From TrEMBL:
GO terms for cellular component: membrane; periplasmic space. Pfam families: NMT1 (PF09084). Keywords: Signal, Transport. The keyword Amino-acid biosynthesis does not apply. Belongs to the bacterial solute-binding protein SsuA/TauA family. This is Putative aliphatic sulfonates-binding protein. InterPro entries: ABC_SsuA_sub-bd, Solute-binding_3/MltF_N, SsuA/THI5. Part of a binding-protein-dependent transport system for aliphatic sulfonates. Putative binding protein. Transmembrane segments: none annotated. Its main location: periplasm. CDD domains: PBP2_SsuA_like_2 (cd13558). It is found in: Periplasm.
């Protein structure tokens, strides 16, 4: 496990010149930090970059194009399998009812086993990909028993509503949107299968930069404070989220009321759970070899996030 310190060739960014490059997904970190008022006096300049999902965000972090960003439980595993230069530096755990496999309202599919031979839309390497794998495994199936259509959520929504796929594996707010606007039905959700973890992941280049470490720490502390604020100001957060994303307020509120993240330690329990998910992908032959998840965590900020 990589824990502390900087490499012998570590960069040193002067404090007054620190610019924190943060990867985000629409309506996520920047939106909640803004709504909670926690960006008003942020002591460093932030450059935001928006990504459609976790995998491309982590590619950017590995390449040094961004310093850190938030993703679900599966993208770090795929990044680790590719030997990406990244490490999970913070974690939270949320509800998993919104991690759903959806079907159209009038679909004949009633059980997970009915998915055999069907088409499922899912973002490759995203948290929903892990949800599909574990759901199928729990019901005696593998990903070889279905056809996975790898689509980002915006494209998957169109495919789902137009009947081009039989099911869609996704997360909130897309789950709430599909339920309210397309009358989607939940075939199954993440309870008993998904671990619900979400991560703040930093690039090794940023972690090796002593000048950026205080900025990363400050960002992490404020981000997890913002998560707590959102959980205790749900209507206010739903209004801000709707305004940021263009979602209907009712959709945003349904998603907010169904979710609630709490900060957790990057500890042996978390690593073991993530390792089990990684091993499941290896056994399914989705990933080419064994992933050692413990090598892709960094606990140097844990004391500040307790």
């Amino acid at each position: 496990m990589f824990t502390t310190g900087c490499s012998a060739t570590a960069q040193h960014t002067p404090p007054g010149e620190v610019v924190l490059k943060v990867g985000d997904q629409k309506g996520n970190a920047k939106a909640v930090l803004t709504a909670a008022g926690l960006l008003n006096d942020f002591p460093y300049r932030i450059e935001w970059s928006t990504f459609a999902s976790g995998p491309p965000l982590l590619e950017a972090a590995s390449a040094g194009a961004i310093d850190l960003g938030g993703v679900g439980n599966t993208p770090p595993i795929f990044a680790a399998a590719a030997n990406a230069r990244i490490a999970a530096v913070g974690a939270s755990q949320g509800q998993v009812e919104a991690d759903a496999i959806l079907v159209p309202e009038n679909s004949p599919l009633r059980a997970v086993t009915d998915l055999k031979g069907k088409n499922i839309a899912v973002a490759k390497g995203g948290s929903a990909h892990g949800q599909v794998l574990l759901t199928l495994r729990a019901n005696g199936l593998t990903t070889k028993d279905v056809t996975l259509n790898f689509l980002q959520p915006s494209d998957a929504y169109g495919a789902f509503t137009q009947g081009r796929v039989d099911a869609w594996a996704v997360w909130d707010p897309y789950t709430a949107q599909a339920q309210q606007e397309a009358k989607a039905r939940v075939l199954t959700d993440g309870r008993g299968k998904s671990n619900g973890y979400g991560f703040q992941v930093a690039g090794r280049k940023a972690l090796d930069d002593k000048g950026k470490n205080p900025a990363i720490k400050e960002y992490l502390v404020r981000y997890y404070k913002a998560q707590k604020w959102a959980d205790t100001h749900r209507e206010e957060w739903a209004k801000a989220w709707a305004a940021e994303t263009g979602l209907k307020y009712e959709v945003a509120l349904a998603a907010v009321n169904r979710n609630g993240d709490r900060v957790v330690k990057v500890d042996d329990t978390l690593i073991r759970s993530q390792q089990e998910l990684a091993d499941a992908f290896t056994e399914d032959k989705t990933l080419p070899g064994k992933v050692d998840f413990a090598k892709f965590v960094d606990t140097r900020f844990q004391g500040d996030l307790a």
